[in-house]
């Protein structure tokens, strides 16, 4: 299995795949970070070229998104799928995912101690980070990022490419528009329009999207 990225979030993904790690069945990819060692932690190969990726996909097409940032994750998912890869989800063993009426898209990262409750939907490529909680009847779009400790309370809807910062809370039955950003620790008490940025307690909009965005 190929993990896109070889630093930051990719290193945390490694913690979610202990069996594959023990069997030396994990490979990383990073073509932007200079001076990387050829073996991550002295064990896992780091590929640097697309030719290497294509050769790997002929043996094992599974790949995982190991980077944050919804739009970057989306671009990489499309790029590596076009090379013959199979976008694959990672769900940590300690994550709590509901057993009833849960719809999970492909390419998810559901990290350690995250909660995804019953009657929820997570769109393709979404990241639910460590200790985050997605409560009942929440709909999450594609390539959203829910940061560590964030809480999305019941009945909310997050459109595509939403970022919810660490330890932020979105109160029940709110709608967060596409590409909106919720600052760390914010408490969102009203709907947020597409492209807006919200910070503070209670949350206030400090930036609106422009027509160009």
TrEMBL record:
InterPro entries: AcTrfase_PglD-like, Hexapep, Hexapep_transf_CS, PglD_N, Trans_hexapeptide_repeat, Trimer_LpxA-like_sf. PROSITE patterns: HEXAPEP_TRANSFERASES. GO terms for molecular function: acyltransferase activity. It comes from the Bacteria. It holds the Pfam family Hexapep. The keyword Repeat applies. The keyword Ribonucleoprotein does not apply. Keywords: Acyltransferase, Amino-acid biosynthesis, Diaminopimelate biosynthesis, Lysine biosynthesis, Repeat, Transferase. Coiled coil: none annotated. GO terms for biological process: diaminopimelate biosynthetic process; lysine biosynthetic process. Substrate binds at residue 68. Residues 2-80 form the PglD N-terminal domain. NCBIfam families: NeuD_NnaD (TIGR03570). Belongs to the transferase hexapeptide repeat family. This is Acetyltransferase.
């Amino acid at each position: 299995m190929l993990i896109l990225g070889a630093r930051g979030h990719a290193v945390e993904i490694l913690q979610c795949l202990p069996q594959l790690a023990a069997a030396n069945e994990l490979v990383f990819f990073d073509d932007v970070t200079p001076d990387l060692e050829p073996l991550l932690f002295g064990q896992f190969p780091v590929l640097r070229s697309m030719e290497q990726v294509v050769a790997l996909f002929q043996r094992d097409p599974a790949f995982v998104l190991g980077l944050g940032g919804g739009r970057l994750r989306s671009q990489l998912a499309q790029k590596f799928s076009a090379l013959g890869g199979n976008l694959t989800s990672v769900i940590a063993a300690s994550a709590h995912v509901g057993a009833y009426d849960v719809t999970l898209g492909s390419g998810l990262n559901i990290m350690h101690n995250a909660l995804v409750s019953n009657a929820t939907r997570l769109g393709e490529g979404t990241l639910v980070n460590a200790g985050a909680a997605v409560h009942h009847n929440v709909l999450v779009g594609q390539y959203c990022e829910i940061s560590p400790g964030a809480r999305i309370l019941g009945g909310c809807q997050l459109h595509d490419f939403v970022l919810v910062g660490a330890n932020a809370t979105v109160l029940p039955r709110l709608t967060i528009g596409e590409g909106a950003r919720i600052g760390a620790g914010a408490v969102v008490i009203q709907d947020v329009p597409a492209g807006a940025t919200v910070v503070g307690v209670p949350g206030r909009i400090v930036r609106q999207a422009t027509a160009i965005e």
